[in-house]
Design a protein that fits this description.
Elements (H helix, E strand, L loop, with lengths): L12 H16 L12 E6 L5 H12 L3 E5 L13 H11 L2 E6 L4 H8 L4 E6 L5 H15 L5 E6 L6 H10 L5 E6 L8 H10 L3 E4 L2 H4 L5 E4 L10 H7 L7 H4 L7 E3 L20 H20 L3 H6 L1
Parallel strand pairs: 1-2, 1-3, 3-4, 5-6, 5-8, 6-7, 8-9
The protein binds N-carbamoyl-L-aspartate.
């Protein structure tokens, strides 16, 4: 049966556990996986700018021995001529074995999946979801903290437009004893539908404006950039863009074992002087992103290293 990843909840907690175990094995034994995707092709269909996500998918496929084709902006695809996502994916299905798609419109990857003959991975749909970033975040937390239960996580910055934030809250809401602290200016608060979901599930959260006030309570601090491209006017963006800047001084008030995550790209919200702090884990996170995408490609294609190496 054809399987896609459109929403982080498409995989059960048990399936995610298997995926993360595979990703960790990949990280520790890269050679074992070097030919698992020989002869397979990944299409990256990116209708919106990206560096990390597209390149990490491409790196993942190359590391598995596979090939990559695709486009990195809508203007260089037939979308510029008016082709629909549904038609594009039908055609891509003839050229590739699996497709990663990023699109500025919410729901685009769902439309693609409905018309596809190959697995579709949602690599970000507008301000909605970003499931592979969430897999990256969960794998990083699991690896550095040793667990996905029992912690306080502060999400800071643009909680309104940040799709990585929406996906991560959704995914973490299935684990036990997670306490959320949402840190944002009034204008960039978490959308109501997420707050309602947390209320329905009885999950503990609080909303604050001031980072310093809560930083000492956190096991994890997840920083995000203000999503300029989703603002309706530049003035609001300029007013809010430097609302939070994590500096060494502020980190002095945090726990010694807190970790700082960021999906990247960073703008000003984490001062570069923080990069040398052992708690700064955002570049490690980017490395985990490649391993988890390798594991995901293998899983969606139904491949495993033992069988492929013996074939
Ligand atoms: C994120 C995104 O595209 O939503 N970037 C990423 O995939 N690593 C975060 C962002 O752009 O701020």
């Amino acid at each position: 049966m054809l399987r896609h990843l459109l929403n982080p909840l498409d995989f059960t907690v048990e399936e995610l556990d298997e995926l993360f175990t595979l990703a960790e094995d990949i990280g520790n034994n890269q050679k074992k996986y070097a030919h698992v995707c020989d002869g397979k092709t990944l299409a990256t269909c990116f209708y919106e700018p990206s560096t990390r996500t597209r390149l990490s998918f491409e790196a993942a496929m190359y590391n598995l021995g596979g090939n990559v084709l695709g486009f990195s902006e809508a203007s260089s695809s037939s979308a510029a001529k008016g082709e629909s996502v549904a038609d594009t994916i039908r055609v891509i299905s003839c050229y590739a074995d699996i497709c990663a798609m990023r699109h500025p419109k919410e729901g685009a990857a769902f439309v693609a999946a409905a018309h596809s003959h190959i697995p579709v991975i949602n690599a970000g749909d507008g301000g909605h979801q970003h499931p592979t970033q969430t897999l990256t975040d969960l794998l990083t937390i699991r690896n550095l903290k040793g667990r996905l239960d029992d912690f306080t996580i502060g999400l800071c910055g643009d909680l309104k437009f940040g799709r990585t934030v929406h996906s991560l809250i959704n995914a973490l809401s299935r684990y036990n004893n997670i306490n959320f602290i949402f840190i944002s200016p009034e204008e960039l608060k978490v959308p109501d539908y997420i707050i309602e979901m947390l209320n329905v599930k009885g999950i503990s959260y609080k909303q604050v404006i001031n980072l310093e006030e809560v930083i000492g309570e956190l096991d994890i601090l997840y920083m995000t950039r203000v999503q300029r491209e989703r603002f309706f006017n530049e003035e609001d963006y300029v007013r809010l863009k430097d609302f939070y800047i994590l500096t060494k001084d502020k980190l002095n008030h945090a726990r010694k074992d807190m970790i700082v995550l960021h999906p990247l790209p960073r703008v000003n919200e984490i001062s570069v002087e923080v990069d040398d702090d052992p708690r700064a884990a955002y570049f490690k996170q980017a490395q985990f992103g490649v391993y988890v995408r390798m594991a995901l490609i293998m899983t969606l294609l139904g491949l495993n290293a033992e069988e492929e190496n013996n074939a």
